[in-house]
Design a protein that fits this description.
The chain is mainly beta. It has six helices and 30 strands. It is found in: Cell membrane.
């Protein structure tokens, strides 16, 4: 401070030097030119005066603040700018007395103006203090001072608006891990001027808050620095955003990921899977776990999901909306007899192990039986008409045991009787491409059956008609 005073003595007049100490130690209110006593003295002595008040300015951090001090009839006197908090001299006349490039001075509007009170022309000039790249510590009051006796001064204050910032202290880490069923608290502390508002939202969609023991309610945003989750469920897992805003853009946010750990579970889509040989078959297993699990497929004690046999292909698909869900698929190409067995999907994590099993069966191909059919009918038309159709016969061996016997069935419909005959599957068949064309090969083997069926049909007709 002594150095500053010596510098002032060197630059300014002797009167300024004698008064600067008093200006520094006295109260600002008593030195304000607006007081009635000072105003009268100044007018009587025809000394400089302030044309307007400096006023206060509010500027966002990082921008420039300008304080204007307009003085009439400065004459031989000097103007200085000081920082009121520590009375640091920033400028003297047109020179700045600080090495900081933050402060600079400009002089504008030097022009004569008629004083309506005295009728004399007076010079008027505006001394502007520029404070560049404002920071929060630049907030405060600044004094414009003229080295009159008594000294003239007035004060203007700068308020610095600061964009919000999320503090490290008191804010949750980027990842919060809890066990399912426990309580979790997400915290977010922010600073700024004016004080910012803090809210929470989920990154991708609405988040769930427990309404009661078994029910949840969907919430878009939650206002407050603390987000408390009671008896956390796996459905609440995901990324949450802490957002801080005030009047100074831009807003700021922090991502906090909530991980809910629980033991793995495994469930197969079908416990019994059937497929014909020679086809591709897929085995599906659904895993729910957090943290992630190591998933394998087993047939007995053999790991088929990492088998060297390229007929076995294993795939995993993670759900986009429910990240704790994983679907694992084992695809078996060209199913063989040795593949028919019990399979297990097994999920292993640091918390526990889960498995589910299914059995793979073969579907036997069923051939539709082609039965040898003999149809005949009799239509009653006044007792004078009797007609008969020629039997049409065909043979094949069936794959179903219940159809491997010769049977005769009767059907009565609208005055007609029909019969169908299934031959015994053990009757030898002669492979002859012309068999159906000539009907000679079948006469010997079928004649006995046709004759016996004819007798049965005749008896049936007599019973039904008479």
């Amino acid at each position: 401070m002594r150095v500053v005073r010596l510098l002032l003595c060197y630059v300014l007049l002797e009167d300024y030097c004698s008064n600067v100490g008093a200006a520094i130690t006295s109260d600002i209110v008593h030195q304000d030119f607006s007081s009635e006593q000072n105003t009268a003295t100044l007018l009587d002595n025809n000394v400089p005066s302030f044309a307007t008040a400096i006023g206060n300015v509010t500027v966002a951090s990082g921008r420039e603040a300008i304080l204007s001090c307009t003085i009439r009839s400065l004459g031989k006197y000097k103007v200085a700018w000081l920082r009121k908090d520590d009375m640091m001299v920033l400028s003297m006349g047109t020179k700045t007395l600080t090495n900081s490039h933050k402060f600079s001075l400009s002089l504008e509007n030097m022009k004569p103006k008629t004083n309506l009170t005295t009728g004399r022309n007076e010079d008027e000039a505006t001394w502007k203090l520029h404070i560049k790249t404002l920071k929060e510590q630049d907030r405060g009051c600044y004094m414009c001072q003229v080295n009159t006796k008594p000294m003239l001064n007035q004060v203007g204050c700068v308020d610095v608006l600061v964009a919000p910032d999320i503090l490290t202290s008191g804010t949750s880490e980027s990842e919060v891990i809890v066990k399912e069923g426990e309580n979790a608290t997400l915290e977010c502390k922010a600073s700024g001027r004016p004080p910012p508002t803090v809210s929470w939202k989920k990154e991708k969609n609405d988040f769930l808050l427990r309404k009661n023991r078994d029910q949840f309610t969907k919430v878009q945003t939650w206002a407050g620095e603390r987000l408390e989750l009671i008896r956390v469920d796996r459905k609440q897992m995901g990324a949450y955003l802490c957002i801080a805003k005030n009047d100074v853009p831009p807003g700021v946010s922090k991502r906090v990921y909530l991980r809910v750990h629980f033991s793995p579970t495994a469930k197969v889509k079908d416990e019994l899977v059937r497929s014909p040989l020679g086809t591709d078959v897929s085995l599906i297993c659904e895993i729910e776990a957090s943290p992630r699990t190591i998933n394998v497929w087993q047939r007995g004690k053999q790991l088929v999901s990492i088998s060297s046999d390229d007929r076995f292909v294993s795939n995993e698909t993670i759900s986009e909306k429910e990240e704790w869900k994983t679907t694992i698929e084992l695809k078996i190409k060209q199913l063989k007899v040795e593949d028919l067995d019990e399979y297990k999907c097994r999920a292993t994590s640091v918390i526990g192990v889960a498995e589910a099993s299914l059995r793979l069966y073969q579907i036997e191909g069923v051939t539709q039986a082609t039965r040898a059919t003999s149809t005949s009918g009799r239509r009653y038309n006044g007792g004078n008409s009797l007609w008969r159709t020629t039997p049409k016969l065909a043979y094949s061996r069936t794959s179903t045991p219940t159809l491997q016997r010769s049977t005769v069935a009767f059907t009565h419909e609208r005055g007609k009787i029909f019969t169908t005959t299934t031959p015994h599957s053990r009757i030898p068949l002669t492979k002859d491409h012309n068999a159906f064309k000539h009907n000679e090969i079948f006469d010997a083997s079928v004649s006995t059956i046709v004759y016996s069926n004819f007798i049965i049909i005749t008896v049936a007709l007599l019973v039904v008609l008479f």
